[in-house]
Amino acid sequence: MNLLVSTPPLNVFEQMAFDEQTVHLRPSAVTLRFYRWTDSPAVTFGYAQFLSEVDCALSTQRFAGPRVRRPTGGGIVFHADDLTFSLVFPYKDRPAEIYRSLHRCILAQLERAGQTVRAFDKTLPAVAYAPSINHSANACFINPVENDLIAADGHKILGGALRRFGEWVLYQGSLQLPCARTNPLYRRAVTEAVRTFFAADFRPCGADASWLESARRLAQTQYNTAAWIGKF
After folding, report:
1. Tell me: the pLDDT tens digits for 179-217?
2. Lesser CB count within 10 Å: N end or C end of the chain?
3. Which residues are catalytic?
4. At what angle are helices 12-24 and 209-218 packed, to 10 degrees?
5. Whether 91 contacts 153, CB under 8 Å
């Protein structure tokens, strides 16, 4: 049975650690989780980004909250009122196909929820996907790329980042609409989209104490350390 995992509120370092631990525990089925936060606003940034460029970009926004390097790629993401979620599943398709198929499932459900949304379908040069553009850290929700979802006015509302761990994939996504975190329509839309994407249902499951403890330990020993945050 696929799992819809719930956790108590976690800080940004624990969120990243919990996702990675979910991969390493090798769940026997697809795992979906919606983040619950203790410390937002917070920032996550892509695995390959340079910390100096990230901090420069954050200083222009006058952001002084917690920030952490994700295990996945992509650019800077501000987490204030977004609906943040992760998926762990066996790897089958190419990353571009995963983005295309999953995001179109979410698009269909957002339309059913009354949102006017479309997929960004422009083919961009490879530099658009780079962690740094002109020596500035790429910001995910300023620079949409192919298969991201955008609103009627053209601004990006949904993006995600992937990382392969052997035969498993970790996807981390962010839906940025007003009140996205508290409006149950959006959580339902993402859940139904994931069900459609995998053609399967999900059983609600709370994370047990050992799962949470292993994530908190990884947060302390890796994600909330200068060595990880300043890796590049």
Report:
1. 999 999 999 999 999 999 999 999 999 999 999 999 999
2. N
3. 140
4. 120
5. no
119: Cβ contacts below 8 Å, ≥ 6 apart: 100, 103, 104, 107, 147, 148, 149, 150
Measured between alpha carbons, how far is 115 from 138 in angstroms, rounded to an integer?
A: 27
**Residue found under tokens 């479309």:** 118
Note the helical H segments in 115-219. Answer: 184-198, 209-218
Which position has the token pair 């650019």? 75
- Which residues are CB-neighbours of 146 under 8 A, at least 6 positions away? 96, 99, 120, 121, 122, 123, 124
CA 185 – CA 197 distance, rounded (Å): 18
The position carrying tokens 């839309």 is 189
CA distance 175 to 79: 10
* Nearest partner of 171 among 183, 161, 159, judged by Cα: 161
Q: Is 204 helix (H, G, I), strand (E, B) or coil?
A: strand
Number of domains in the chain: 1
Q: Write out the residue range of the structural domain in which residue 47 sits.
A: 2-229
What CATH number has the domain bearing residue 189?
Answer: 3.30.930.10
Q: Is the pTM of this model over 0.85?
A: yes
Asked whether 67 and 58 are in contact (CB, 8 A), the reply is yes
Strand partners, 68: 44
pLDDT for 133-145, tens place per residue?
776 788 888 888 8
- Strand, helix or coil at 160? strand
